[in-house]
Design a protein that fits this description.
Bound molecules: guanosine-5'-diphosphate, magnesium ion
Number of helices: 10
Distance between the termini: 66 Å
Radius of gyration: 24 Å
Oligomer: single chain
Strand content: 15-25%
Structural class: alpha/beta
Order of helices and strands: HHEHEEHEHEEEHEHEHEHEEHEEE
Largest sheet: 7 strands, mixed
Length: 374
């Protein structure tokens, strides 16, 4: 092995070891008022090392999966090998993904498409991940990268392996994906001098000023104005400093419930608290799952109307919730926003029927929009 390469490998493994040591320490430390400060600092150190790890492997990007987005939104199926991801993809969509009795049947990304309430939803079957995926075990990194670009993550847990669930959550967290959370309201403005100025509009029971200082110092932020407007914890502060997190909705399903006695299922449900229990193979609760996916994607339906005509209430335009007139217009035709004069809107987003609105107007579900184009 070339000397430089050898050094790189050595350096990488030592970073991995350092992360491992710190994680072990975290696992051993019970969270309370006294350990709060220490835990925050250890978490910051881990986050820093992960940054280092990522920038090291950043030179060689690896192939990554080239997945062409299609449809109105993208859902990724995430789980350990053999939990039933391919079976579920085949059940939900028109795809034909290989189903195996042994692990690692799916080696690449298999897309399928599901149409539901006029939404075209792309569903991706990716190789199963295992412990260590975020650090590069298996195709873990590539898979988790696909997750970062998805609109919804569908986590599949095998009823016989509930112990997989915390591992998946940890791997997802390590890649900087936050599930079912909002981006916290923290503003950090770096300054030239003056040290750290910490402003808070609410009390922070989980984060002392001292802790904020030590975490920010770990990231070499010593001069800045920090404004915190909700009761955050150390993880959320670290996310705000690193700025590279994505926030995604997630649904957790327990699969293979056709195989397990009801009493056992009840116990595992208590443990995992899934959103839904299904059988991909025996097609149990699949209509309910389709509805959950649709809800999780936070779509809304907007109807088109031509001036002087009745609106088309048959086929809505499907866009993400809180979209503006601009996003609606863009969906209809690329040129429309350049030629846009005004819109007339009917529905919950306006005070009166046919109200005149600009491109910036935020629409609501079931609105009717009439575009006036030059
Ligand atoms: N009994 C039962 N078996 C299932 C179910 N879903 C998947 N399987 C089986 O589990 C194995 C692995 O399924 P597969 O879809 O390849 O898992 P993947 O590796 O996650 O894609 C196959 O033998 C499937 O037939 C289910 O809901 N019930
Ligand atoms: Mg598979």
């Amino acid at each position: 092995m070339a000397k430089i390469e050898e050094e790189q490998v050595k350096a990488k493994s030592s970073v991995n070891e350092q992360i491992k040591d710190l994680e072990d320490e975290l696992a051993k430390t019970k969270y309370n008022k006294r350990t709060q400060f220490h835990i925050g600092l250890v978490k910051a150190k881990i986050a820093r090392l992960r940054e280092k790890q990522a920038s090291r492997s950043g030179g060689k990007k690896g192939e990554g999966y080239a997945v062409k987005k299609s449809g109105d939104a993208t859902v990724v199926l995430l789980g350990f090998p053999s939990v039933g991801k391919s079976t579920l993809l085949n059940t939900l969509t028109n795809a034909n993904s290989a189903v195996g009795h042994y692990a690692f049947t799916t080696l690449t990304v298999i897309p399928g498409s599901m149409e539901y309430k006029h939404a075209k939803i792309q569903i991706l079957d990716v190789p199963g991940i295992v412990q260590g995926a975020a650090a590069g075990t298996g195709r873990g990194k590539e898979v988790l990268q696909v997750i970062r670009n998805a609109n919804l993550v569908l986590i599949i847990v095998d009823v016989f392996h509930p112990e997989h669930y915390p591992v998946i959550l940890k791997e997802v967290f390590s890649t900087g994906v936050r599930l079912n959370q909002r981006r916290p309201d923290i503003r950090i403005t770096k300054t030239m001098r003056g040290g750290l100025q910490i402003g808070k509009t609410v009390p922070l029971p989980e984060l002392s000023d001292e802790s904020i200082r030590s975490i920010m110092k770990e990231f070499k932020v010593v001069n800045a104005n920090v404004l915190i407007r909700e009761p955050i914890n150390a993880d959320q502060l670290i996310d705000a400093i690193q700025k590279n997190c994505v926030y995604t909705n997630a649904i957790t399903v327990l699969n293979k419930i056709d195989m397990i006695p009801p009493a056992d299922l009840e116990r595992i449900k208590q443990e995992i608290r899934p959103d839904l229990c299904i059988s991909a193979e025996k097609q149990m609760n699949i209509p309910e799952l389709r509805e959950l996916i649709f809800q999780g994607l936070e779509f809304m339906r907007v109807y088109c109307k031509d001036p002087g005509k009745q609106p088309d209430m048959e086929v809505p335009v499907i866009i993400r919730r809180d979209s503006t007139v601009e996003e609606f217009a863009q969906r209809l035709h690329k040129d429309f926003i350049h030629r846009f004069r005004f819109a007339r809107v009917w529905g919950d987003s306006v005070k009166f029927a046919g109200q005149k609105q600009s491109l910036k107007h935020v629409l609501k579900d079931k609105d009717i929009v009439e575009l006036h184009i030059a």
